[in-house]
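[job 0412] stage=complex_fold ligand=adenosine-5'-triphosphate status=START
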Amino acid sequence: VIIIDKAKSSEITQNASTSDHRPIAVNGDYQNNEDVPPLLPIDIEPETAAPSSFESIGHAGNINSNANSEPIFHVRSRTAAALAGVPQEKQAQYESLDYDVCENKLFQDEQLSHLRDRFSLRTHFIRWIIFILIGIITAVIACTIDIVIEALSELKYNFLKSSVDENVPVNESGGDLALPYLWWLLFSALPVAIGAGMVTYIEPITAGSGIPQVKSYLNGVKIPRIVRIKTLAVKAIGVITSVVGGLAGGKEGPMIHAGAVVAAGISQGKSTTFVKDFRIFKAFRDDHEKRDFVLGGAAAGVTAAFGAPIGGMLFSLEEAASFWNQNLIWRTLIASIISSFTLNIVLSAYHGVSALTFTGLFNLGKFDHPLTFEYFELPLFMLLGVMGGLLGAAWNSLNTHINGFRKRFVPWRAGKVCEAVLVAILGVTLACVMIYYINDCRPLGNDPTIHPVQLFCEDNEYNAVAALWFQTPEATVRALFHDPPGSHKILTLAVFTVVYYFLSCTTFGLNVSLGVFIPTALVGAAWGRLVAMLLFYIFPQAQFLHPGKYALIGAAANLGGVLRMTISLSVILMETTGVETSFFFPLIIALISAKWVGDYFNDGIYDTVIEVNHVPMLPWEPLPQYKGLTAEAILSKPVVCIKLRDRAHYIYKVLQKCNHNGFPVVDDVQDDRRSEGRVCGIILRSQLIVILLKSLYVENQRFWQPETTIQTFRDVYPRYPSISSVRPLDRKTNYTVDLSMFMNPSPVRVNTYDSVPRIFNIFRALGLRHLLVINSENRIEGIITRRDFIYK
Ligand code: ATP
Ligand code: MG
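[job 0412] stage=complex_fold status=DONE, emitting structure tokens
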């Protein structure tokens, strides 16, 4: 088959000699009236397997410069530059979600039947109930993770403390740290090996924090296996083992992912993993509804991780959501508040206090005295922000390079597990070296340290270096915020900052379930406190240099530099430390300066992870290089179309030979040239497969029509069967499919001369998957998908 553009068709038709009997396709159709094309007029990409993991690894250097995808524009944004040469197979690895509701005839019938009206009071009510359930269940899961981590860490560090006390006899010089060191290695390496093993061998998608995955999902990209129960189980065990193992990470990211899985699971009323359909919530079985619940779940997850309901909701809006509206925000807030309330009740019961008086929700500890600031400190906060921006940008860049290195040199699964164990061993070793060589003894009683270790100190003293390491990173952040002035030496904090900075940078990207929030806050808190101590050393009169306050600002600045969020971070920090609203201003100054400085150099860490994984995320704004172009510049043609009444065999062959997910439905087709037909709708691959599987042919319409409803299609959601599950159709059997009741009769159409920024805005705002480009006669000219906005 020679595939040609219409413009060149006459030329080629003339050149086609009589000796060449191959059929000639013009604009994707076949002039010899073959009802099934021998080869479809498109680049048939090989069926690519779903990516095995959403690796938080890779770097821009890995992106091959592909001769075919030579950039056609000179001015490119950072993202576009990285995506310009993405190889075809990488481009094709992610499919999209259908956020645009297919309002076909079956859907309209459902709308008219008052019982199951999507907008009826009952459905509305059920939607609220689901959001409340999401809040409760996410909080219960988060509490369980929290309590298990707390209990196991307590056991671990108590044991290590007694081992140190036994092996380093009090008031004797020397002592042997070897045995405690070995125990420490064992208690770190073992849990980390279990966690990394589970993540690597059972569910690789659970690696990393989970926030980039949830963010991509909410943007409309289907990330395989991201919201399955198995994923939740591995994620939960993975995060417990990694935090207990002492890796430089936190549980927050995984909790957000857990919330998303809970939401996706509950709202569907069935579990595909356990092959159990509870026959409830059937109206919510589509991508659009599921997306809204997942947003609520993510917010409930953040809330449960920090005990910060407003921060949780804002986090979802600022970082995760790509689409929102007033009702959704309201429901998300309720899910967050319910989550926070449930967390309060469960933790109160666990700690044996009344739910009304329990104040444990200040996860990062409440400041005893109101934090105040002088106006002349504001420039100082801004400088700290700048420093956070620089350190954060450097962290992101270093982390991306380490992960690129990892991707190239540690591709095997066993190697990934070993690598995680090695990083755990490295952490313990560095901690031991610090404890051994830095002599920082502080008087006991002054400090809320959980596991004070005497080590080489005098009686009634404890080792301040060991105190930093002998607890979970979250507890250390708490300590840095609230320890009284003079709790550490300058040297201790300086070395700790450097060690933790590099350790956290090496850890993020390992094949373990861990978030980046707490280690980033920890590094920031350490250097923030260090700055206050240094300044106090230089200006001993300056009473305003409260180390806890500067630790908080440092944490905010470092978080801003790495994550590049502002509103939600400041609210989360306020809610978790109980500082007054007046302190919002210093926090925002530090965060915004950090964000601006960091943005100058690179993207936030979540966006970087998304980018290096080649996820086709649609940005908020159209890429700058598309300014001034029209749809013609990015559309794909010829378009594979299907006739309103088409042969089942043709549809079967089309589905077999090409892997597009949407096909324009056309009528008024001359000489079987479908790709010049007049547009009357669009049909999805998944719908066509259901039609073939259920034999919904015109010839036997009277058998299936009475019981075929929109539910017939929802029942197979979300794991649509593939075309290989359809029995091959005999081409001699002339079955016909009439798409009029199945297709979406009102697809969004644009004209060839419409500007790309404008059609981008339409595409993004409506959450479309396919956009049809037509001419003035409503005949199909081309098709645009999310990949065309990113890779062309
Ligand atoms: P998605 O991957 O977003 O779920 P899809 O699989 O239908 O949707 P893409 O994978 O983005 O589509 O398509 C790859 C390329 O093929 C894009 O450039 C797109 O414009 C083009 N394309 C999509 N559908 C058709 C079609 N029916 N006929 C011809 N080209 C198409
Ligand atoms: Mg595709």
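The CA atoms of residues 666 and 679 lie 5 Å apart.
[job 0412] exit 0
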